[in-house]
Amino acid sequence: MWFVYGMWAAWALATLTKGPHMPAMYLLACLIFSRLKGMSWKNILELTRPLSGGLLFVCIAAPWWILLNHSLGSTGLQGTQLSGSLLTIKFKNVFKFYYFYRPLLLVLPWVVFIPFTVLFLKQDREYRSASLLAGLLVLVPVLILTIGSQERWFYMLPSIVPMIILLACGVNHAINMTSQGQSRYWLNILGPTLVLSALIFFVGFIVNDGSVFTGNEISISATIILLVLLLAASLLFKDKTGFNRVLLSGLAFAAVYTGLGFSTVGWSKERFENYYLAKHAHAIMDRYSRVATIRVTPDIYVYYIGHPLTDFKSVKAFLEEYQSSADRTYLLVMNQNELKLLPANIRWNVLYTTDVPRKAKTLVEILR
């Protein structure tokens, strides 16, 4: 009984954090699990105690929501994210599969052992019910969020616990299979291959003098050194259990994935060009009174420039501010195709332009 009330209390606290959407998905997952296990609706109601549990939920979550709604005035929570305004249904999104792969970022580097998790689920008999519940707590939110309008991998953060449990079962299964000699060949191939790939990234960084990477060479170097030490330890002590090989494979995969993340290989050029522009702006921003963006998403520039930005929705909005402001110099990030909208009586110079056809961003200085 107390476990059930603990569940309702946890869902209430989660609702205070981000709203009732994920708790509702988990409630649905629990109902599906109960029905798949053959429970009747009467038994489900007796187990979940929706009346007393719901009352506990309301007592914990409702006061804050009522006070918040009142403090927002006449409109209240209507139209806000807390009211679910972003959770609109678009069934055409079902073919995007974003939530089937992107949230795996949460459990790197152990996603390399997903095949062993699948083998564990196929062969296990003792923990089948627990595995089914953990799977539903991941799958139901994935399916519901897939048909929503937002693609945010961190929405799956509440499901990280069942994801970790399932992957841990896969890792443990890999170790057991290796100690029994069933998958030693597979791990003997996987580990060295991943280590070799990580070393290739490291050598590529040195040879290209960092031109194919956006930085973070220190963390990459440290990872490579750790991998080499682990590989040496694995060979010296003749690992018989498979644990070292499993650990080595996971860390090597992390190094490879990190290398891919900081490499221009496999990514759009725009991602790195915007980064280079932002770093250029960071180097010279102290010369200017104001730093601003015009009709571009400011997030990446705020992060890498490391300075508060004024975000203007149009060139016209910027000109109105410029004419009434006492600031003498501006550093602007704007779309290159909108430079023609700047009037001739304003002194401006182009300092940097990204090399992205049809989507070029420009760093412009405005002088008085």
Give an overview of the whole structure.
Helix content is 58%, strand content 8%. The chain has helices spanning 2-18, 21-36, 41-48, 50-71, 98-101, 114-123, 128-146, 160-179, 184-207, 217-236, 243-261, 269-284, 299-305, 315-324; strands spanning 290-294, 310-312, 330-335, 347-353, 361-367. It is α/β, with parallel strands linked by helices. The longest helix has 24 residues, at 184-207. The model is unreliable at 209-214 (pLDDT under 50). It has a five-stranded mixed beta sheet with strand order 2-1-3-5-4. The protein has 14 helices and five strands.
Spatial strand order of the main sheet: 2-1-3-5-4
What proportion of the residues is helical, as a percent range? 55-70%
For the biggest sheet, the summary is:
5 strands, mixed
Q: Helical stretch count?
A: 14
| Percentage beta strand | 5-15%
Number of strands: 5
Rg of Cα set: 27 Å
Instruction: Sum up the overall morphology in one term.
Output: flat
Unreliable spans are 209-214
How many angstroms does the end-to-end distance come to?
Answer: 72 Å
SSE order, one letter for each helix or strand: HHHHHHHHHHHHEHEHEEE
Mean pLDDT: 79
Helix/strand-derived class? alpha/beta
